[in-house]
Amino acid sequence: MTTDTATRLTQDQPTRLERIKANTRDDHQQIDDMVMAMKPFDNRDNYGRFLGLQYCFHAVMKPLYHADDLNALIPGLSDRSRFDSVCADLGDLGLPLPRDPGAIAAPHSGPARLGWLYVCEGSNLGAAFLLKAAVKLGLDDGFGARHLGAHDDGRGKHWRQFVQQLNGLVLNPDDEIVLRQGAHDAFDFFHNLLIMDRKVAA
């Protein structure tokens, strides 16, 4: 095999993020379908339910965004947390902070946390559509839908920076498996939040 051929084959291999995305495509679609079934932008009551789920998810994500070792791997990570924005959105709408989700939490150590971060950061990329829908309720990125807003640098640029950082990490094969499982677990966590919301709303 020539050097040029070897380089071309390497370039043709999917990136880490592309592998995670392919591995969790069904999980992602299930969550999207269930969120839309809530009709969160039909009225403010439904949106309040959705916001409560966001609070529970971002509450368990907050320790990951502020973990020292993860910030060393992904500079600027702590600034990406949207937990405070979710809290502000609840305050804008006069809604109380939901109950703590309990003992269930994101992992406190290890590469699985990177999978959880992938899910959380990816949700912000897709939030552009949700933010447009929120306008119908008189909400925007300055009132009630702050957590759906884009970063000052721009939504796409901010995501691409994270992708570059995640793809650039050096991990062994076992860590790669744990990372992908972490992404599955994060989707499962939000799925369970949606299931609980359905039971309460029924």
Key features of this structure:
globular; Heme Oxygenase, Chain A; mainly alpha; 202 residues; 10 helices
Give your account of this protein's structure.
With 202 residues, this protein is an all-alpha fold. It has a single domain (40-201), classed as Heme Oxygenase, Chain A (Up-down Bundle). It is 66% helix and 0% strand. It has ten helices and no strands. It has helices spanning 3-12, 16-23, 25-37, 44-65, 68-73, 83-92, 112-125, 127-134, 155-168, 173-201. The radius of gyration is 18 Å and the shape is globular. It comes from Thalassospira mesophila. GO terms for molecular function: heme oxygenase (decyclizing) activity.
In short:
With 202 residues, this protein is mostly helical. It contains 10 helices and no strands.
Poorly predicted regions are 1-10
State mean pLDDT (0 to 100 scale). Answer: 90
The fraction of residues assigned to DSSP E strands is under 5%
* CATH architecture term: Up-down Bundle
Distance between the termini: 62 Å
Proportion of helical residues = 55-70%
Instruction: Please state the overall shape, judged from the principal axes of the Cα atoms.
Output: globular
Task: Specify the structural class.
Answer: mainly alpha
Order of helices and strands: HHHHHHHHHH
Number of strands: 0
The number of helical elements comes to: 10
The number of domains: 1
CATH topology (level 3) name: Heme Oxygenase, Chain A
In the CATH scheme, the class would be: Mainly Alpha
How large is the radius of gyration?
Answer: 18 Å
